[in-house]
Amino acid sequence: MCGIVGYIGPKEKKEILLDGLQELEYRGYDSAGIAIIEGSNLHQFKAIGKLENLREKTKNYHSEGFGISIGHTRWATHGKPTELNAHPHLGQYSYVVHNGIIENYQALKEELQSEGVDFLSQTDTETIVHLFEKYHNEGMEPFEAFKTTVSRLEGAYATLLISEVAPDTIFFAKNGSPMLIGFDGNEVYFASSDTPIIGKAKEVYYLEDGEYGYVQAGEVHLFDKNGEKSFSKQTLSADKISAQKDGYRFFMEKEIYEQSYVMTETMMGRVLDEHIKLDELEEGFFDTINAIKICACGTSYHSALTAAYLFERLAKIRCDVEIASEFRYKEPLLTKDTLFITISQSGETADTLEALKMAKRAGLKSLSICNVDNSSIVRESDAAILTRAGIEKGVASTKAFATQTMVLWMLSLYVGQVKGTITTETLRSEIDAMRHTPKALVVTDTLHARLHRLSKRYLHGHGFFFIGRDIFFPLALEGALKLKEISYLHAEGYPAGEMKHGPIALADSELFTIALMPKTLHYEKIKSNVEELSARDATICAISPEPFELADDFIQTQHSSHPMVEFFEMMVVTQLLALEISVRLGNDVDMPRNLAKSVTVE
């Protein structure tokens, strides 16, 4: 989740940029950079790692007088976290920063390369600055060159561009990724959220999708598809914590809503038209691998259980899943033809890290699925695939689980590709389903309002059963865990077919059953299981695209083209239900009692 800052005015620009970027640290990043133009002097600084590294690089630099400036914190999507891939990106005489993803960057890059343009980075962002300079070199005025550049971009972007050919101007454009403009007299600020400019700007304008323009002499010229337009400023809030939440009540709520966007980032550059591409894995990585063992804890363990179905079903490779805290003490049998996969949001989970060290001592090849580059688990592994979820502040994991599951789904297809165990037809079908996933993760006002109303009926009783079959069994476990973590109500996830082997003895009107009933997978089987519970007077809340007449409450899902698409849509429902129940109970949603975000002890 990258961050943008910009400033045009007479104040010392380095500190404005660095302070602004520091306020965006909560989003997560792996590199940072700034670029400043004062008169004919252009200065640029980049550093990987924490902002302290950038501060150290710039300690002897101070800006003076009027100038234009842009800064950026980057979370790696295209290309590894290196200084070359860090923003701002340089053309011959211009700099650009960018949040989001340019979906057609590869075609634009090939076009530019065919015209002799050399690219320094692996990023999609660099295409923007080269396109701008191409059009300017062909005779266009700077703003016309920028406007033409923006017209060719497909995807999500918030971008700022500065150039020596217009040393008093910042060009900007927004589509899909957030960006705002702050005002304090003739000084103008840019940022990807309120926090970097609180205490600096007094008023703000939140850019809308499709808007672009430029700032010159303290005046903003704003355009959309209909031409130049006027706009109204509003007073800027002074509450930084509230600003970080972008208008949401809780970080967890914000992160649930972000899932559609981060899922697109997770897939970008990896899910191609005909195959899965994972640059993180060297050719031949799976040559000697005949089995997979996954080790994880908590929510990550549930994504691992989901993956076990996918690896065996799609890639035709044996997959075992272990709880890391148990694995360490069971004297496991480890063979060198087994790939050892660890999953962790933070990359610092102590039990998982120790399990990884055991596997390495046994000579196993290792792969980590993680959200934090350069974390302990990533450093310890032979290879790592980053989930690109951005920083997650809510203790109860949401978008980390979603992106972990997506990475594992991609990996199962990748293994099938390289081992030749998946048909071309199946691969295409799976990729098509992946492309529909972000839409299934969109939270509609109607859905959220319904779950808010429904939640008041689930504040008592003697417990919850979340039930599902196949991949929906791990989702049932995850749904129950979310509810336990933030509501403190007892909840269990169970395989639906196992209810009759004991747990059905608990069924009565005070037992709430959350039934995951996908249309694409074993629908008649789970329907039968739910009917058994209903006959024992259990209170049924059915989540399904198919109306269920025995349900006391029914939440209708929309997507039923593929089990994994249904999986992700139902995941959102269970997350929001847990959130709303917790809110009604008056709990601290983001910081539930007794829990920590990163569990670094046994």
Task: Write a structural description.
This protein is of the alpha/beta class. It folds into 3 domains: 242 residues, Glutamine Phosphoribosylpyrophosphate, subunit 1, domain 1 (4-Layer Sandwich), CATH 3.60.20.10; 190 residues, Glucose-6-phosphate isomerase like protein, domain 1 (Rossmann fold); 140 residues, Glucose-6-phosphate isomerase like protein, domain 1 (Rossmann fold), CATH 3.40.50.10490. Helix content is 35%, strand content 25%. It contains 18 helices and 25 strands. The two termini are 30 Å apart.
Quickly give the structural class: alpha/beta
- The radius of gyration over CA amounts to 25 Å
Low-confidence stretches: none
Strand content range: 15-25%
For the sheet with most strands, the description reads: 8 strands, antiparallel
- Shape-level CATH architecture of the largest domain: 4-Layer Sandwich
Strand order of the largest sheet: 3-2-4-1-10-9-11-15
Shape: globular
Distance between the termini: 30 Å
